[in-house]
Amino acid sequence: MRGFTRRLVAVAAAAAAVVAAAPTPAQAHGNDSYLKVAYFTQWGIYGRDFQLADVQQSGAAAKLTHINYAFGPVTAAGVCDSADPWADWQTSFSAENSVDGVADVAGQPIAGNLNQLAELKKKNPKLKALISLGGWTGSAYFSDAVLTDASRKKLVSSCIDLWIKGNLPGLPAGTAAGIFDGIDLDWEWPGSSGNTGNVIRPEDKQNFTLLLAEFRAQLDKLARANRTKYELTAFVPAAPAKIDAGFEVSKIFKYLDFATVQGYDFHGTWEPVTNQQSALRVPAGAPDNPDFSVENTINAWVAGGAPKRKLILGVPYYGQGWTGVTGTGNGLFQPAAGPAPGAFAAGTEDYKRLKQLPAQGYTVHRDLRNGHAWLFDGTTFWTYDDPAVLLQKSLYIRVKGLGGAMMWSLDGDDEKASLTKAIAAGLQ
């Protein structure tokens, strides 16, 4: 027992050194056997002031195999659309905020985030870009859109036309062709509750498989014509009940290149007691039985028939926080008054801000055996992943035989891309 603990302590202590020794951007992509998939949020360019230029300049882009652009909604009419054309292809970027360091000019074929994605791919030729469809607030009408063969064909055709063929409204046909290398489905969730107002049907489970089959057929047809390959991926849930309700696990991986698995939001401030949000294993003393953990989630997918190498473990670049914590000890599993204040939403905070809290009187606590960390100052509690935890999760990915890691989302990392570099170092 003591030897095991000492080894884990050494792993955690070495994380910072491993990150520091990670290859520079110019040396990157030497080994892409493990996938490193990260989300870039469309709206991050506003209040968060996080640009694709930051992804390049921090060195994060050079560490990734895929970048998922979030999100493109499915409308009530059963077609794909842009949630924000201004951000996607209309707004201009200054030289400072452009990936290539050159300001956008009037009259260029395309601007916005999509043009910046194209520039990012030029700088990082092995990087693939996927358009993520749905998301928490964009999944309301999936169930309606996939109800019949005709409606599925209509939806898939519209998504491919808009995002893969690049036929954007108001621009010449094909202007955005070649920017996206595939489709990422973020239907949250087939057959079970997600955001308030989502349409849900028992048939969603079978229709999700049929939707994948239709995407695969239409993407492959276009790929043959263009002599290329288009990827199809999906974001899938942690909860065994949601897996059972919405996914024919033994069938869907016939169509998917890989699936990114929710490895976070296991607990949060919708509950009155502090807890872990992303632990590898259920911690000792956890109040819930059964409980959520990375291991329990991965085991559920594998037991259902998912190929391990097609499972990409999701990790959070943010924390869940409670304040008004009472009780004794280190703050874990204690009653709390409510959500802790956050920069953009109560109860959540980016890693780049949480990493500053130890200098403000917070103590870092680690459960090395069960793979999670938290911050506590006697009143406020934050569960989060830091480079040491992510290195441990990278080792878990390797030992378990999984396909790689997914990060939500890049804007939560610090300016040195410490979390991304920790994952890349662990998955070399």
Automatic annotation (TrEMBL):
SUPFAM superfamilies: (Trans)glycosidases, Chitinase insertion domain. It catalyses: Random endo-hydrolysis of N-acetyl-beta-D-glucosaminide (1->4)-beta-linkages in chitin and chitodextrins. One of its GO terms (molecular function) is endochitinase activity. The keyword Cell cycle does not apply. Keywords: Carbohydrate metabolism, Chitin degradation, Glycosidase, Hydrolase, Polysaccharide degradation, Signal. Residues 1-28 form the signal peptide. One of its GO terms (biological process) is chitin catabolic process. The keyword 4Fe-4S does not apply. It holds the Pfam family Glyco_hydro_18. This is chitinase. Residues 34-428 form the GH18 domain. Belongs to the glycosyl hydrolase 18 family. It is an enzyme of class 3 (hydrolase). Its EC number is 3.2.1.14. PANTHER family: CHITINASE, CHITINASE 12-RELATED. It comes from the Bacteria.
